[in-house]
Amino acid sequence: MSFSYQPEGEVLPPHGDPPGAYIAEEVPAPRRRTRSILSAPGTYVLVGINCAVYLWMVLHGVDPATPTPAQLIHFGANVPLLVLHGQWYRLLSAIFVHVGLIHLLTNMWCLWNLGLLGEPLLGPWGMTAVYVLTGVAGNLLSLLVNIVMHDVVSVGAGASGAVFGIAGILIVLLSNRKLPIPAFELYRLRRSVIQFAGLNLVIGLATIVLPLIRIDNSAHVGGFLSGLALGVPLVPRMTSGRARYLARQKVTFAVAALILALFGHWIANLR
C-alpha cells in the first residue's frame, strides 16, 4: 500500500476580505461585516465538523500527527479498491478526514478564508453544497486516475479538493460586474482567489517532479474544475432577487449531484 505520512493536498491560504453582503438580498450597497460566526454559519459548521472528526479520531487512539493508513481507512479515508467494492460513502467521508494536525490546520485555514469570502455570495446552504459536491467531484476524478494508473490501494483524505472547488466557484461568481461591489474591490478579490488557486496548483504539480510531500493533484483539479462549472449557471441569477437566485442554486446543485452519480456509475463499470 502506497502512503505518505506527509499531509496530502496541503494548500496555502488566500488573502482578501469578504465582500460583506449576501448578494441575493436586494440591497443598494454592501456593508463590510465583522468576522463573526453569524456572518458565515455554513463555513463555521464545516470547519467545526472537520475539527470534530479529527478530535474523534484522536480520542479513539489515532496519532495526532502521523495516523497510520489503517486508522485513516477505519475513519473513512478514500481507497479506490474499497470504493469499487461498494463503499462509495468514502468519496464523501474522506473530505472530513485529515492526515494529522498540520494537514487539518492548513486546510481549515484556507476553508475559513475562502468561506468568509464566498458565503455572502452563496449563502450557508449554498456554501455547504459547494463544499460537498466539489469535494466528491475531486475524489471521483482521483478514483478514475488511480484506476487508470492501476493504483487501487492508495489512501487519500482531506478537504483540499473542496477548498479548490470553493476557489473555482468564487472565480466565476466574482466575474459578475453587476454585483453591488465597487469594481476595483471586485477585481482585487477575484485576483486574490486566482492567485491562491494558481499558486497551489503549481505547488501540487511541482511535487510530481520533487516528491517532498504527497499531494493528490487529481482531487485538486477535479474540485477546481467542478467549482468553475457550478458557478456558470449561477451568475445570471445573482442579482435577479433572492428567490430566483436560490431556485437556480437548487436546480444547479441537484443536476450536479445527478451528474456525479452518473460519473461514478460509469467509473464502476470500467472494470
> Would you identify the regions where 5 or more consecutive residues have pLDDT less than 50?
1-10, 24-33
Secondary-structure element pattern, one letter each? HHHHHHHHH
Number of helices: 9
End-to-end CA span: 20 Å
Instruction: Give me the count of strands.
Output: 0
Strand pairing plus helix content: what structural class?
Answer: mainly alpha
* Cα shape: globular
Alpha carbon gyration radius: 18 Å
Residue fraction in strands: under 5%
Largest sheet: none
**What average pLDDT do the residues reach?**
87
Helix coverage percent:
55-70%
Describe this structure in words.
With 271 residues, the protein is mainly α. It has helices at 41-59, 69-74, 80-84, 90-93, 101-148, 160-173, 183-209, 217-231, 242-268. Helix 6 runs parallel beside helix 8 and helix 7 (183-209) runs antiparallel to helix 8. The longest helix is centred in the middle third of the chain and has 48 residues, at 101-148. It is globular, with a radius of gyration of 18 Å. The two termini are 20 Å apart.
Brief characterization of the structure:
This protein has 271 residues and is an all-alpha fold. It is 61% helix and 0% strand.
List keywords for this structure.
271 residues; mainly alpha
Please outline the helices and strands.
Blueprint: H1 41-59, H2 69-74, H3 80-84, H4 90-93, H5 101-148, H6 160-173, H7 183-209, H8 217-231, H9 242-268
Helix pairs in contact: 1-5, 5-6, 5-8, 5-9, 6-7, 6-8, 7-8
